[in-house]
Known about the structure:
Radius of gyration: 21 Å
Helix content: over 70%
Number of strands: 0
Strand content: under 5%
Shape: globular
Order of helices and strands: HHHHHHHHHHHHHHHHH
Distance between the termini: 27 Å
Largest sheet: none
Amino acid sequence: MSGKVRVNRMGTGSVPKVMLSMGIPMILSMILQACYNIVDSMFVARIPDSSGVVHMGEYAVNALTLAFPVQMLIVAFGIGTGVGVNALLAKSLGQQDEEKVAKVAGNGVLLALIIYAVFLVFGLVGVKPYIGSQTKDSMILTMGSSYLSICSVLSFGIILFSIYEKLLQSTGKTVYSTIAQVLGAVVNIVLDPILIFGYFGLPEMGIEGAAYATVIGQIISMLAAMYLHYRKNTEVKSGRKYLKFESRIVREIYVIGLPAIIMQALMSFMTYGVNIIFGSVSQTAVTAYGIFYKIQQFIFFAGFGLRDAVTPMISFNYGKGDKKRVKQGIFYGILYIGLVMLIGLIGLEIFANPLIGLFDMSKETEDLCILATKIIATGFLFAGGNIAIQGIFQALGCGLDSLVVSLLRLCVVVLPLAWIFARFTNASFMIWWAFPIAELVALLVAVRLLSRAIKI
């Protein structure tokens, strides 16, 4: 070790205050992220009818829904690797090992480039077979393939941003990661209508315009996060000598990060499975689920943002050996995230109708989406605990426990239940109950696993 790392507020400040000061900017940035995801769908839903095709916007929203699992998979590898980098770097800071801190950062960047290469290949050769596995409608197949090809081939922005964002968060500099994310979100929101509808003399690009707006916003966020990391993250040394793979570092990153990747990937797998199961009920159910998923991101992303403040706070003090601050972090993390999800539940139950009305869907799709929202939102009561406890598991290095909770929430319970409910005569009502039931089952298991983990 070449010197002593400066004192970090995660090890000295009041736990609830530091957690909120780190978490609030991240919540705001994640909500904005959800906002521009929703804006994407809102503009796409308004693509005008053409060539005798009625409800072209609904076809487009359906295409986005089918493409979304791969977009989530891209994010899963980026964020999952970032989670491993975040926790390991924060722990190394707590141990005052600045050489290891620098190596963790360098290996994280190299891993991001490898992940991008994989999705580049998929974007070039794998998109059409993937979309075709979920629909036989030629219009949806064409629109979904065009959108997803662009998002995959140009995915380097979101993947590298995920790493640099976590590098900033791991040292407590969440304001800077928020600035980077906000810049990209604003660019995306501004470009959406311009590229989709062809304003200011630009060609009308339709769903491809939505894709280009998305990737340009991601690239802007990446560039901003890179700049802020290298200029402001003074606790992390940088240089070419740290851009070199070390198997030990990679292994430690993925001890924590691989379960996080799998957890995020399970969301992708769940959505893919749900699209197929709900498609057996009706295409309207698929579209309704796609709209609800974008709306629920307001609440879930807020919970994820706060979780990303909880994880480095607990990890830092766990590395430092301060058990009192670790326990405080666990208590306030569960409390704050639970409150966020409760507020989200109340908000959706009250405002479901006007929110869904923004998407300009047919009456049948709108009514089904309102029903889905009111039923699935009841599961937020349990989801808050699951989100918080999974962040705690990641901080304590209990990635396997976190994975078990994710498997229950996103696959083991929800998909079989959805498949069973889809065969009921009132399937359009029953299928939505699979989600809150899965959250409840997962929470019961998560609490049991947490009681064992905190004895470490």
